[in-house]
Amino acid sequence: YRYWAVYTPNVMRISIYENPSIVASSDGVHWVEPEGLSNPIEPQPPSTRYHNCDADMVYNAEYDAMMAYWNWADDQGGGVGAEVRLRISYDGVHWGVPVTYDEMTRVWSKPTSDAERQVADGEDDFITAIASPDRYDMLSPTIVYDDFRDVFILWANNTGDVGYQNGQANFVEMRYSDDGITWGEPVRVNGFLGLDENGQQLAPWHQDVQYVPDLKEFVCISQCFAGRNPDGSVLHLTTSKDGVNWEQVGTKPLLSPGPDGSWDDFQIYRSSFYYEPGSSAGDGTMRVWYSALQKDTNNKMVADSSGNLTIQAKSEDDRIWRIGYAENSFVEMMRVLLDDPGYTTPALVSGNSLMLSAETTSLPTGDVMKLETSFAPVDTSDQVVKYTSSDPDVATVDEFGTITGVSVGSARIMAETREGLSDDLEIAVVENPYTLIPQSNMTATATSVYGGTTEGPASNVLDGNVRTIWHTNYAPKDELPQSITVSFDQPYTVGRFVYTPRQNGTNGIISEYELYAIHQDGSKDLVASGSDWALDAKDKTVSFAPVEAVGLELKAIAGAGGFGTAAELNVYAYGPIEPAPVYVPVDDRDASLVFTGAWNSDSNGSFYEGTARYTNEIGASVEFTFVGTAIRWYGQNDVNFSAAEVYVDGVLAGEVNVYGPAAAQQLLFEADGLAYGKHTIRIVCVSPVVDFDYFSYVGE
Question: Contact 447/564 with Cβ under 8 angstroms?
């Protein structure tokens, strides 16, 4: 067969039946199940809590195999999220996991014999390509293999954990894979959709992307909508030279729902297309297969595949799904979309040069830097760039042109296109002067918080989870400016701050900010400010002159929707961080303590380990010998307590007044900075009463 398709049929609104199925065709119009195939290739989920959807397929020419992907979701909030799953076939009949696939290493070895061109095709024989804790952030995955760069590319619609009602917060992300099985982190694409004919912004729902060599462009047909959800959705055409930066073609839809009563009168849904090359570049035919919904079909006669009203819908059949086909010449299609009767496909533009640039050619280890790529002329047609590093042990570069410093040294980053344009850039990787302060060494507070759990508390910015966020109060709304402060466990010399915005939606992403260093005396200094943070999910990094501080305050001056949010906050010290000393407690009942005189036992839940001792006898003492560099004495204050002398290594270190409001586990004395070695501390009662709860020391 020349044409193969994977699709997920649906019944009404019951998604449990939406399971990947395979058909094939010689002409793209008449489709059959290949002999021996049993559909669906993925069995029905065990309950309506789960569903499959949004299938796509890519041909692996090197392995002569077809790879069928689909989205699987747990529809229960707080469940296990979603997965992009994969089954592979060498013959179009048996779909599953290749026998040469190693589950532990996730490596699919190329088969070398007919015996190896087999798959295990049981109910559970699929590969999880990507997993996410959100239910609907990888909708409609569409996959392309790029033979020039030898990579697979996946685009998907991120609707977070919301799905159908996420509205205009939807956005498209892309990721790369060397093998189609293990995928990198997603990056949000730019300008994917624009405005419709009424000037309203379009939001994506499903999409299909192909690379069209005739046009030297990625072409996408996007199912999209202008309202709050996909009801009444249409298809629009959008194109890209590099897969990241997109531009919608005109404002007119490629396909819209038909008139009331027609088989596609409610929604145009997930589509797929093929550009059939013509006699010359750009003179091809666009062939589109699209699913659609007919509404209000209860008890009605509805059309069969020939258009005749021969199918009796049942009373519960309020919506019926069908697949349709349409075609047009590419030129005629573009004339309509652009409202230009004289449109002809522009001639391809050969490039004269490719130029690489970066903010700096010096990159600290562990840091990343984005390459900037430009072409002359600027409208060069072939703008797909392959990046390589001369020494990946020093610096790596990914398909997005992001360089990561690995180790000290130098590496040459090279770029080239299909038509042979090239450039390179020498990068010096140097020691990183910044050290990440562990989030566990910080606490967070805010001037305004919403009273939720995953959305609200300031502590969410320090939990290492980008899916939980701090959010200013919106019930009722607290107007900006509002601040969030991270306080350190000790003073640090800091010089870098990273703000990670919320990853789903834009409400509250901070666009204008001020950053203050907080000093030990409580005073604050402005260390950075700006009004140009983009309303996207990318990290915002602020570097400033190193300053000693006990905390940093981020003030949100302006944010999307008039709110302030943050997913994560991270702070970097300038220079190495000395590890915080580890104190070892020594309870009052420890056998290593030497008590002299009369000491009375006391018990109370407020004491360390529930016990303490006190003395009324002048001259009574407690002594402890340790090996280390610091020692602390903890005890009780009270209104009938008095004073003690403290000796360290036989020398009077001070007199401690323990009189005060009743309070347990108080730090009464501390000696740090001692030379490493054996030391002895002795507490002597000089005026009753004196309490001893425990010692805490740094050392062996």
Answer: no
Can you say whether the dihedral through the CA atoms of 226, 230, 231, 233 is positive or negative?
A: positive
Q: What's the pLDDT tens digit per position in 368-384?
A: 999 999 999 999 999 99
pTM of the model: 0.80
**Residue 535 above 90 pLDDT?**
no
Helix (H) or strand (E) holding 67: strand 65-74
Give the tokens for residue 291: 């699913």
DSSP string for 571-637: EEEESPPPPPPPEEEEETT-TT-EEES--EEEE-TTSGGGEEEEE-STT-EEEEEEEEEEEEEEEEE
Neighbours of 105 (CB within 10 A): 9
Name the nearest CA neighbour of 231 among 324, 296, 293, 181.
293
pLDDT above 90 for 205: yes
Tell which residue, 409, 406, 412, has the closest CA to residue 356.
412
Alpha carbon distance 515, 556 (integer Å): 9
In this structure, which amino acid lies at residue 589? Answer: R
The predicted structure's pLDDT at residue 461: 97
What distance in Å separates the CA atoms of residue 567 and residue 564, rounded to the nearest whole number? 11
* CA torsion, ordered 202, 207, 211, 217, to nearest 10 deg: 0
DSSP for residue 183: B
Q: For residue 336, give the DSSP letter.
A: H
pLDDT in tens, 134-191: 899 999 999 999 999 999 999 999 998 899 999 998 999 999 999 999 999 999 999 9
- Residue 601, pLDDT > 90, answer yes
Which of 566, 465, 450, 470 minimizes the C-alpha distance to 134? 465
* C-beta separation of 205 from 230 below 8 A: yes
Distance CA 376, CA 386 (A): 17
Give which of 82, 86, 87, 180 is closest to 131, Cα–Cα. 82
Amino acid 396: pLDDT: 98
Count of C-beta atoms within a 10 Å radius of residue 17? 16
**What DSSP character marks residue 353?**
E
The tens digit of pLDDT for each residue in 488-521 reads 999 999 999 999 999 877 889 999 999 999 999 9
Average of per-residue pLDDT across 195-209: 97
Among 265, 286, 321, which residue's Cα sits nearest to residue 28? 286
The mean pLDDT value for 281-302 works out to 93
- Estimate to the nearest angstrom the gap between the alpha carbon of 517 and the chain centroid: 29
> What is the side-by-side strand order in the sheet with 395-397?
368-370, 402-405, 395-397
